């Protein structure tokens, strides 16, 4: 029986609620497929600050590095907004990605037929949308130096540096090319090469790598046009390759094609070592503790962890089918609620997912 060490990071806000649902699904699907999980939980983000005075406690990072895979819920909360930058939850997340050398973020966007009407876009635009945003995760403006705030004779000034080396571009581009070759064979590289030197380097390196991938059709698009095209004709995209800042923005925009940011998982991967899997939504502190959270993206992140991180394809498919079954049965959380459907809270949705999972096995 294969056994995997899983580090769960419930984090803040709705994180503990959706983590409980995902854990219950993992505990159910594991034995059915002869898999055992050695699960530990660790604090991160605001929870890490509250427990250790650090949004990424040393022991948390160690447990993540020692795991076979890491499943993160969400970080952040209003009560941490006035902390110094290094103590804020977001700083802990950036340090976690850097500390695990997770340079490639994969954010798939697939429209489930049952949720077509939940999108703010017309059915004719989003039917059959199936794309992936490949976002570079440990470089760019979020990590570039120098950065900071200074006081000048003219007033206060803030500054950040967007920087990429050719090696950083090459390794994320390699991920994009490999994924495109496995999918529909189309890669669109997003940049701002008309005004940014860093984007000019990015585009040159992607073009250089394209010569070694004749099976992949490569195109380039400025980030502002890419944002527009995601809304105008999202089906034109297969793999979107982006830097850190542009990918952060575009992947959230793409998330709304599905009708709710509460539906999409993500994976953050390195060259080796464990991957980090998480829903792309935030901690939603306004609904935390009210049993209103949508746990489906967290469950789909667990499925992505099983497939991409652990190689357990059948178990991953079972979780995905359970999600589809509860939606087909008309169960919805508030963010997805539609006429004729039954609204459930987070805990009740978890219970229906377990029922659906049993149904998947009996079918």
Automatic annotation (TrEMBL):
The keyword Zinc does not apply. It comes from the Bacteria. Mg(2+) binds at residues 224, 248, 252. GO terms for biological process: L-leucine biosynthetic process. The record marks 142, 192 as: Important for catalysis. One of its GO terms (cellular component) is cytosol. Binds 1 Mg(2+) or Mn(2+) ion per subunit. Its cofactor is Mg(2+); Mn(2+). It is an enzyme of class 1 (oxidoreductase). Its main location: cytoplasm. Substrate binds at residues 97, 107, 135, 224. GO terms for molecular function: 3-isopropylmalate dehydrogenase activity; magnesium ion binding; NAD binding. It catalyses: (2R,3S)-3-isopropylmalate + NAD(+) = 4-methyl-2-oxopentanoate + CO2 + NADH. Pathway: Amino-acid biosynthesis; L-leucine biosynthesis; L-leucine from 3-methyl-2-oxobutanoate: step 3/4. Homodimer. This is 3-isopropylmalate dehydrogenase. It comes from Aphanocapsa feldmannii 277cV.
């Amino acid at each position: 029986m294969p056994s995997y060490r899983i580090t769960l990071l419930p984090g803040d806000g709705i994180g503990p609620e959706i983590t409980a649902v995902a854990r219950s699904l993992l505990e159910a699907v594991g034995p059915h497929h002869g898999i055992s999980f050695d699960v530990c939980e660790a604090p991160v983000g605001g929870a890490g600050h509250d427990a250790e005075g650090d949004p990424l406690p040393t022991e948390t990072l160690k447990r993540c590095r020692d795991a076979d895979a890491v499943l993160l819920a969400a970080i952040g909360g209003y009560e941490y907004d006035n902390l110094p930058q290094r103590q804020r939850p977001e700083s802990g997340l950036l340090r976690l990605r850097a500390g695990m050398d997770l340079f490639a973020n994969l954010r798939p966007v697939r429209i489930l037929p049952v949720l077509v009407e939940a999108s703010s876009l017309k059915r004719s635009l989003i039917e059959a949308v199936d794309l992936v945003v490949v976002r570079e995760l440990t470089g760019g403006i979020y990590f570039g130096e120098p950065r900071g705030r200074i006081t000048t004779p003219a007033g206060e000034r803030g500054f950040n540096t967007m920087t990429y080396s050719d090696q950083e571009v090459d390794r994320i581009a390699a991920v994009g090319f490999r994924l495109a070759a496995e999918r529909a064979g189309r890669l669109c590289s997003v940049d701002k090469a008309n005004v940014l030197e860093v984007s000019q380097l990015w585009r040159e390196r992607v073009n250089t790598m394209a010569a070694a991938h004749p099976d992949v059709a490569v195109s380039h698009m400025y980030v502002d046009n890419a944002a527009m095209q995601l809304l105008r004709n999202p089906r034109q995209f297969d793999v979107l390759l982006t830097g850190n800042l542009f990918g952060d923005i575009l992947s959230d925009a793409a998330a709304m094609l599905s009708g709710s940011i509460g539906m999409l998982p993500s994976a953050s991967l390195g060259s080796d070592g464990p991957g980090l899997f998480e829903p792309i939504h935030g901690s939603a502190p306004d609904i935390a503790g009210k049993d209103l959270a949508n746990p489906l993206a967290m469950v789909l992140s667990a499925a992505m962890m099983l497939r991409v991180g652990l190689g357990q394809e059948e178990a991953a498919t079972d979780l995905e089918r359970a999600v589809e079954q509860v939606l087909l049965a008309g169960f919805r959380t508030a963010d997805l609620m539609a006429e004729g459907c039954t609204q459930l809270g987070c805990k009740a949705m978890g219970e229906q997912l377990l029922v659906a999972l049993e149904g998947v096995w009996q079918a």
